[in-house]
Amino acid sequence: MSGLRSFVARRLLLGAVQTGTVVVLVFALTEALPGDAAVALAGDQPDPARIEAIRETMRLDRPAYERLADWAAGLVRGDFGTSLVSGRPVGHYIADGFGPTLVLAALTVALLIPAGFGLGVLAARREGRRTDRWISSVTLAVYAVPEFALGTLLVTVLALRLGWLPPTAVGYGTDLLAHPSALVLPVLVLASRPVCSLSRLVRAGMIDALGSPYVAQARRYGVSAARVTWTHALPGALAPAAQHLARTIDWLLCGVIVVEALYAIPGLGTVLLDAVAERDMPVVQGLAVVFGTVTVVLNLGTDLVLRRLAPRAGVAA
Amino acid sequence: MYDERLPGLRRRGFLAATGAASLGALALAGCAGSDDAGTDKKSKGDGAPRRGGRLRAAFAGGGAGETLDPHKASLFADAARAKALYDKLADYGADLSAQPRLAEKWEPNASLDRWQVTLREATFHDGRPVTAADVLHSYRRIADPRQAFRAKASLEPIDLDASRATGKRGIEFVLKRPTAEFPNVLAAFGAYIIPEGASDFDRKPIGSGPFRFASFTPGRSASFRRFDDYWEGAPHLDELEFVVANEESARVNALLGGQVEYAHELDPTTARAHEGKGRIEIVRLRNSAMQAFCMKTDRPPFDDPSVRQAFFLIADRRELVDGALSGAGVIGNDLFGKGYEYYADGLPQREQDLDRARALLKRAGAEKLTVTLDTSSVAAGFTEAAGIFRDQAAKAGVTVNVRMGSKDSYWADILDNGTLCCYRSGAMPIESHISQRLLTDSTTNATKWKHKDFDALYQQAQSTRDATDRAAVYGRMQRRLYTEGGFLIWGFADWIIGTSKSVKGVVAEAPANTLDWARFDKVWLA
Question: Where is each ABC transmembrane type-1 domain found (chain A) (predicted)?
């Protein structure tokens, strides 16, 4: 067990370093961009005196390393700093944006896992037959459609033509669960592509596993087909699927910008877009920390699961 | 409960004609119902206003960084919300002339450098009267040197230290120089009146506007309720909610799906797809955004007036409007402010004339000219306009190299750099356009138009008391700009709004950012 503990500690340390690097990188890259928040805020009134005043009010006139150090010191105290634009704490931005994104991600994953695994297993068991060909071609086709196009299509047909669902979540704010109908389309769009990739991965893994000597052996012992599928073959196919799932959750949590914009959902993606547009550095940095942390934790979790599932395969870091 | 107290009286006439006494009477009588002195102009065919209901309006917003501090307003959404909660002393009419709002009247002295402003009887949402002290407090807050409020530059002509209250509702503004167009200052973008001592703008904003605060979540929604004691009569709507949807398709979909009744800022293609189809109404606010190419007149090749004239003649304005604005606009005549007060509409419409352009270039020794045109995706139609103009210039033998710039710093970059760039401007009085962009000491003089005699004409206009004489001076200045200025103004874009069929009383003759634009106290739900 101590091996596991030191593995977790090593991974956490590595994760912290990775997150820190991401933040410094984001800071450096934004510094390197032309213009700054003051110029972006001045917009089409670039009166030099006004830009200077904005710069001073925002305390952008201080050297970059000083601002970075200040911010990093605050971070240690759990203080994400304050927004340049509104003066509100960055923590509030993140807390507010997290809710909707989390709801979307949780629902999408709840739909994704049964649908992805179910379709994959079904296709693998019917390999080469009509069901398999159907599943394979439909998943490939849907996977090829970008979110924006699919989202627009679904809105046009299901919301505007047929009137079954609300077209956007405009005005519902963070309380999305109180308006479940507004969540149907975003979740469908979000799940559509991962379901396809996941089911294809599961299918491929399952076919390998079903053709493997240990499954053949299990069959020779007379184990039922269902048991062979679910308890012998599926775990072998899980490893790549679990890694893929972690990446998908990460992608979902880090703000699914297109879907949030299309359905006017005020999640992390929207917060990020606005912050980038206004050069609101503290908010961008705060989000970078959150995204970095989420990625690290999720990957750590996956690695632990994989260690449990396929200990012999070793762990790919 | 609709009560037509002043039938047939137009708001303009109403404001000009009514004195303090009748206004006092109106304020007393007006509490019971709404006076609709202005609606006859705009509600053509809309029937009688109905009271009640909630209107939801979708705007592109500033995300979680939004604030209800009216002096920080910089986006259209900010301005619309500020307009619902607060008042300015004056606001712009459809022709961008200043119309009295909280100021009931203004009176200059003979030399136009002292203005006596009288406030109308109005109350803030908490019942306190609007006083001269509130006005001075608001203006001093805007002008605070430690802050960077947008209206600060507009208030610059006022000497706030010397200005004082002459009574509860009287203010004497002392100006640094004669300013005939001083009411424009009172109407400046963001010059809202807040109560003295106001501080908590996001949780408990108190204004004197037609709606009072109900709730606000930055980046999502702001909801307001009718203010029954509004000085101009209570709004028809019970409630007004602003929701934020930055993506244009989200605004359109929300409107089509009945989630909102008003969607601000739509694309021309969207407008064409839905105009006259019966599902929603499309309102086009004409003359809202000037579209131009801006030539730097202080450096080659544009320091030669013949080259500028040649460029004026190269542009096929119709093609630019059709291509870059998807046809949603009207062609320009190289002058700012088509249809606005003092606009020189007597000058002949400039047409493309490639032969004359070539001849002019030849005379200037600028054949086979190559120039770089700076553009960026900072505004709709910029990159398209650059491409179209490049092709038009090629026909006159001019090589235009289009250079894409950064979106974030575009306006600051083009101010001093380059020679030719894409430019646009929202609606403002012609006087403001001149003072901000065309005087030697203008802060955003992108054409580097610096002429002492032109400055002198502006000073002359500002110290001319008589409006007709002043118009003549503006006419001279515009003729000069028309012949040899640096702005190649090829069009004016429409501002497109979508409303549901039930929304009535939306004024079409209101360029974006004028009084009747996004004015929800005069709108009702049928």
Answer: 98-306
pTM of the entire structure? 0.84
Closest CA to B508 of B42, B12, B40: B42
A264, B148: Cβ pair inside 8 Å?
A: no
Tokens encoding B522: 């005069």
Q: What is the CATH number of the domain that holds B43?
A: 3.40.190.10
Based on C-alpha coordinates, what's the Rg of chain A?
24
State whether A93 and B64 contact (CB < 8 Å): yes
Element holding B15 (H helix, E strand)? helix B11-17
The partner residues of B54 in beta bridges, in order of sequence, read: B239
What distance in Å separates the CA atoms of residue B456 and residue A249, rounded to the nearest whole number?
Answer: 66
The CA-atom distances, in angstroms, between B472 and each of B94, B130, B297, B457 are: 21, 38, 25, 10
Backbone angles phi, psi at B226, to 5 degrees: -60, 140
Kindly tell me the burial class for residue B396, based on how many C-beta atoms sit within 10 Å of its own C-beta (0-12, 13-18, 19 or more): buried
In a domain, B278, yes or no: no
Q: Does A186 touch chain B (CB under 8 A)?
A: no
If asked whether residues B108 and B211 sit together in one domain, one would say yes
Enclosing domain of residue B65: 7-261+502-525
B337 occurs within a structural domain:
yes
φ, ψ of residue B384 to 5 degrees: the values are -65, -45
Q: Which helix (DSSP H) or strand (DSSP E) does residue A24 occupy?
A: helix A2-32
DSSP string, B72-101: G--SHHHHHHHHHH-EESEEE-TTS-EEES
Beta bridge partners of B284: B496
Contacts with A155 from chain B: Cβ below 8 Å: 253
Buried b (16+ CB within 10 A) or exposed e, B105-132: bbebeeebbbbebbbbbbebbeeeebbb
Q: Nearest residue on chain B to A34, judged by CA atoms? A: B409
For the residues of B303-322, what is the DSSP string, one character each?
Answer: TSHHHHHHHHHH--HHHHHH
Which domains are seen in chain A, by residue range? Answer: 2-76 (no CATH), 96-316 (1.10.3720.10)
In a domain, B470, yes or no: yes
Closest residue of chain A to B379, computed from CA coordinates: A44
Q: What percent of chain A has pLDDT over 70?
A: 96
DSSP string over B474-486: HHHHHHHHHHH-S
Residue B93 lies in a domain: yes
What is the tens place of the pLDDT at every residue in A288-301?
A: 888 888 888 888 88
Residue B519 and residue B482 in one domain: no
Rounded to 5°, angle at Cα A28 from A27 and A31: 85
Q: What is the pLDDT of residues A41-54, one digit of tens each?
A: 777 778 888 888 88
**Contact between A127 and A120 (Cβ < 8 Å):** no
Q: Determine the distance from the C-alpha atom of residue B439 to the mean position of all C-alpha atoms in its chain, rounded to a whole number.
A: 20
- Under the phi-then-psi rule, with left for phi > 0, alpha for psi from -120 to 50, and beta for the rest, what region is A96? alpha
- Burial, B47: exposed, middle or buried (Cβ in 10 Å; 0-12, 13-18, 19+)? exposed
pLDDT in tens, B125-156: 999 999 999 999 999 999 998 888 888 888 99
CA dist A19 and A28 (Å) reads: 14
Q: Give the count of beta carbons closer than 10 Å to the beta carbon of residue A39.
A: 22
Please state the domain count of chain B: 2
The CATH number assigned to the domain holding B369 equals: 3.10.105.10
Tell me which chain B residues have a C-beta less than 8 angstroms from the C-beta of A159.
Answer: 253, 257
Q: Do A167 and B256 touch (CB under 8 A)?
A: yes
Residue type, B415: L
**Do B244 and B348 reside in the same domain of the chain?**
no
Is the domain of B368 the same as that of B330?
yes
User: Is residue B261 over pLDDT 70?
Assistant: yes
Calpha distance A279→B353 (Å, rounded): 44
